[in-house]
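Case 194 in the screening queue. Each case pairs one protein sequence with one candidate compound; here the compound is S-adenosylmethionine. For every case the pipeline is the same: read the inputs, emit a complex structure as C-alpha cells, and attach any notable structural observations.

Predict complex for case 194.
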Amino acid sequence: MSFDGEAAGWADDPAVKAMDDLFLSTMRELAAAGKLTTGGVRMLDYGCGPGSKSFALLLADDDAIRPREVVAVDISEPMLAALADLKAKIEADHGPLPLEALHVDPAPRQIAALASFDVIAPGYVLHHIGPDIEDEVYATLAGALAEDGWLVASEFDDDAHANSGAIVGKLAAQGLDQIEIIRPEFDMEILYDF
Ligand SMILES: C[S@@+](CC[C@H](N)C(=O)[O-])C[C@H]1O[C@@H](n2cnc3c(N)ncnc32)[C@H](O)[C@@H]1O
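Case 194 output:
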C-alpha cells in the first residue's frame, strides 16, 4: 500500500493526532515508570510519514522523553516532503531540531550504515511489511538496535492481539526481548477505507 497520496494531510488528520498524543503520553508513562525512555537517546523513526511522532518527542518540555537525535526514514518521497515542510514550520518557531530524514528502500539496507539506535519506533508501519521482505526488514531493525535498546512499535490490534502478537513473535525471532507495543483503542478502519 502506498501512502504517497495521503502525505499532504496526514499530520493534520484528527485520528493521526490522537495516535501521536497516545504515543507521547505512553512514552511519558513508560519513562515515569522507569521502564524505558526516549530521553537523551538516539532514536530511529521507522516509517516516519511526516514525522509528527518524532516532532512531538523533540518538542517535549521534559528531558525524560526528549531524544538527543532522531533519524526518520520512509519509502515515500511525498511523506518526506511533508516532513520537510513540517520541520521548516516548527524550526521557524523553535530553532533547529536534531532530526535527519532519509529516503530508504522497502527492505531498508541503508539503516545498517546508520546504526546503532537506543530506541527504534516504527509507527503503524510493521503491518504493511509484506512477506517477501519481512525477514530482511526485521533482521535489519534488530541489527540496528543497540544492546539494551528498545523497539517501541505503535500498532493496531484486535482483542486477541493477533496483529501485535505476530509482530512481537517476528521481533523475538530476531533475538529482541525489549519490545513495547503501543495500541490505540480504535481500529484501523478509522484511517483507511477498507
Ligand atoms: C500508516 S503510515 C504511518 C506514518 C507515521 N509513522 C505515523 O505514525 O503517523 C505508514 C508509513 O510507513 C511507510 N512505509 C511503508 N512501508 C515501508 C517500508 N518498507 N519502509 C519504510 N517505510 C515504510 C509509508 O510510506 C508511510 O509513511
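Case 194 observations:
- The mean pLDDT is 92.
- Strands lie at 42-46, 69-74, 99-103, 117-122, 145-154, 179-182.
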